[in-house]
Amino acid sequence: MSAYRRTLRPLAACTALCSFVIVFSSCGSSSPQATGTVVTAGNDAGPTVSARLEVADVPQAGGAALVNGSGDALYVFAPDHQRRVTCNAICVNSWPPLLVSSTSDVTSGPGVNRSLIGTVSYQDGARVVSYDGWPLYTYSSDRTPRIGSGQGVDLNGGYWYLVSPDGRPIVPTGDPQPTGPAS
Amino acid sequence: MASDSVADEPSAGRGVSRRALFVTGGAALAIGAVGIEVANLAMGQSSGPLPQTTPPDVDLMGEHGVLKRMLLIYQECLDRISQGQPAPLSAVNGAAGVIHDFIEGFHEALEEGYIFPPLEKAGRLVETVNTLYVQHARGRELTQLILTASSEEKSADSNTAALANAMAAFVRMYGPHEAREDTVVYPLFRALHSPAELEQLGNTFADLREKMFGPHGFAHVVAHVATIEKSLGIYDLNQFTPEPPS
User: Fold this and answer.
1) What is the pLDDT of residues B81-105, one digit of tens each?
2) In a domain, B51, yes or no
3) N or C of chain A: less Cβ packing under 10 Å?
4) The CATH number of the domain where B185 resides is what?
5) Residue A98 bridge partners (DSSP)
6) Min CA distance, B1 vs chain A (Å)?
7) What angle do CA A117, A119, A124 make, to 5 degrees?
8) What span, in angstroms and rounded, lies between the C-alpha atoms of A68 and A77?
C-alpha cells in the first residue's frame, strides 16, 4: 500500500462513520434504483415508507440474488458487520440505502425468507431494510434491472457484495468472507 | 530550461486549503465568473457581489485536473510497457490509489449525488448521464484490477498484459468521459441552478472534502501526484514543449 493510501484511507473510513445530513434542496432523483426505495443526496422526496424484496437471477451473482421491487440489485457492505449502517456521508451517493419506516412496511416475493427481514436504525429516524442483519443498499451505477455491476467492488471503505436468498453475501472466490457482529 | 521546482504546486504543509486555493488563488479557473463581473463593472452595471464560494462545477473541473494527470501517468506507463520495459508497478499502483480514493470514492460520488440526479429529473442529457454512471462502474472495476495487478512484486508477462489492457481501457474511456462532463454536463448543471443554489452546493462540496480528506486534502493529493510524476521523470512541464516549427 502506498504512503498516500496509508495516510488518506483511514480518514475516509473514519468519515464514513460520521453521520450527517446532506441536503441540496433543489435536486431530485429519477434514477431507476431510486424508485420508491432510496434516498440520495439529490433526492428531495424524503424517505419512502415501503420497500419490496424479491429474488431474481443476477448474472454477476452467478444465479439468484436479492433485488428490490424495481429489480435493482441489492448489496451488503462488509464493514457493516451484519449489524449497522456504516455507509454514511458521501458513500450514500453511490450506495443509496433501502429505506423504510418499519419492518412491517417491507413486502416480499417468492424465494425471500421473511424471517430474515428486519431493519436497522439510520439517520434522522429513518430505518434501513436488513436481511439476516445485513443492511441493504442499491448501487447508483446499476442502470439496468437485475444487473449487479457493484459486485465485489472495493469502494468507500470496504467491499460490496450481492446477497443470496438465504442471506449470505455472495463473495467472489479469493475475496475475504465478510464477518458478522461477533467478530 | 528544465526545472524541478515544486514552488507552483500547492503544498500540503503550507496551510492552503482546497477552498482557499480556488477562492484566492484560482483566478484562472474562476475567470469566467470574474470576467463577467469585471465586464459588468466596466459598463457601470453589477450583478451582485462576487461569489465567496468556489462554484461546484469549477471544483469538479479541478478534480478532473487530477484525473487528467493520472491518465498521463497511465499513458507513460503504457508507453514503457509497449517498448518492452518493465512495468513501473509502484507508479501505477500509486496512481490507481489516487483514482480509487479521490476520484472514484469522492469526485464521482459528488457527481452521483448532486450533479446527475437534477439533470435526470429535468429530463436533460438522460442518455449521456446514464452512460456516465455506467462508466463510473466500469472504471471502478478496472481500477480494482489495476490495483491488484500492480501490487504484485514481480509481474508475470500475462499479468503485465492484463494490467496494460486495463490501463489502456481506462485511459480510452476517461478522456472522453471527463471532456464531456466539462463541456456539456457541468455547464448545463450550472445553467439549471441559481447562484444561491450553486453557492450552497459549493459550500457542501468543500465541507465534504474537508471531512473526508482533511483541511488540506486537495493539496495532499496534488503533491502526491507530483511525486509519482517525478518518479517517472514526467513532472517537468517544459519537456512537453515542442521545438519551434521549422
Assistant:
1) 999 999 999 999 999 999 999 999 9
2) no
3) C
4) 1.20.120
5) A38
6) 30
7) 160
8) 16
3-class secondary structure for B91-139?
Answer: HHHHHHHHHHHHHHHHHHHHHHHHHHHHHHHCCCCHHHHHHHHHHHHHH
- The overall longest dimension of chain B from CA atoms, in Å, is 68
Instruction: Tell me which chain A residues have a C-beta less than 8 angstroms from the C-beta of B121.
Output: 27-30
Range of the domain at B109: 66-236
Residue A116 in contact with residue A106, Cβ under 8 Å? no
Give every CB contact of residue A142 below 8 A, 6+ residues apart in sequence: A32, A33, A72, A73, A148, A149, A150, B137
Give the A:B interface size as CB pairs under 8 Å: 133
CA atoms within 13 A on the CB side of B78: 18
pLDDT 10s digits, A89-135: 899 999 999 999 888 899 999 999 999 999 999 988 889 999 999 99
Name the residue in chain A with its Cα closest to that of B89: A2
Amino acid, single-letter form, for residue B188 = L
Could B94 and A155 be called an inter-chain contact, meaning their C-beta atoms sit closer than 8 Å?
no
ipTM: 0.78
